[in-house]
Amino acid sequence: MRLPVLVFDIETWTDLKSGAHLYGLDLPEADLEQALMKLRRQESGMDFQRLPLHEIVCISGLWIDETGLMTLFSFSREQYTEAEILKKFLSIFDKRHPTLVSWNGSQFDLPVILYRAMYHGLSAPSLFDQGEIDTQKRYNNYQNRYHQRHIDLMDVMAMFNGRNFQKLDDMAHLLGFPGKRGEAGYHVPEYIRAGEWLKLTSYCEGDVLNTWLIYLRWLLLKGQLQLDDHRLWVQTTIQYLSSLPQHGEFLAAWRQNAQATDFTAADFPSSTL
């Protein structure tokens, strides 16, 4: 494993102001969302908005440094504007050049970050340079799907074939990890409107943690981690989560789901149940 590693995920909702501007709508805010959804269905047959209209409300990450120290963090709209969230996240790449790990980050998270950073007039050459500034990035940058600087697990596990794409939740459950922990549906807008910021950040961080656990299993498959090292990283993760009360539910769901597969069940010996 090439350290440092940054596993990340974003949460978004529809940017009503930009949507009204794009489509020339003059409607009360209460009617805008439905109008934009109807227009999107007419355009594409689906509710999922075009990427530039996804306003970022949270970016979560798990940082693992060269010593193996883990830090789970979130930048959310509870404390920051969207532009401030982006500045904080993008500044990481100005200082360090981590291995970036995501689930569907190539098709969703990074393009949304690109569009929204442009919307706010931000610069992020450390993340988006493809060799124009640093010639070494011609051969290993964060955008090229076949490079190792950004590993989109959904993409690489599908062997770069869209017909093989799997959902993060499904893969997490299959491997004995928590997944969404019974969360049915997409609740991000509800959390924001109700000011339930801890639920929002815990939801986003849960996706980050599931992605990290799948990444460890992926490295084991590829021989980039030996079995003993894999077990050590898993136990380090369990110990770290034990120190985070907000993720007690995640840890409990992991302990329960692990029993569904023989390999993952070994993460929680019977003496710890």
Automatic annotation (TrEMBL):
<dbReference type="InterPro" id="IPR012337">
    <property type="entry name" value="RNaseH-like_sf"/>
</dbReference>
<feature type="domain" description="Predicted 3'-5' exonuclease PolB-like">
    <location>
        <begin position="47"/>
        <end position="254"/>
    </location>
</feature>
<dbReference type="InterPro" id="IPR036397">
    <property type="entry name" value="RNaseH_sf"/>
</dbReference>
<protein>
    <recommendedName>
        <fullName>Predicted 3'-5' exonuclease PolB-like domain-containing protein</fullName>
    </recommendedName>
</protein>
<dbReference type="GO" id="GO:0003676">
    <property type="term" value="F:nucleic acid binding"/>
</dbReference>
<dbReference type="InterPro" id="IPR019288">
    <property type="entry name" value="3'-5'_exonuclease_PolB-like"/>
</dbReference>
<dbReference type="Pfam" id="PF10108">
    <property type="entry name" value="DNA_pol_B_exo2"/>
</dbReference>
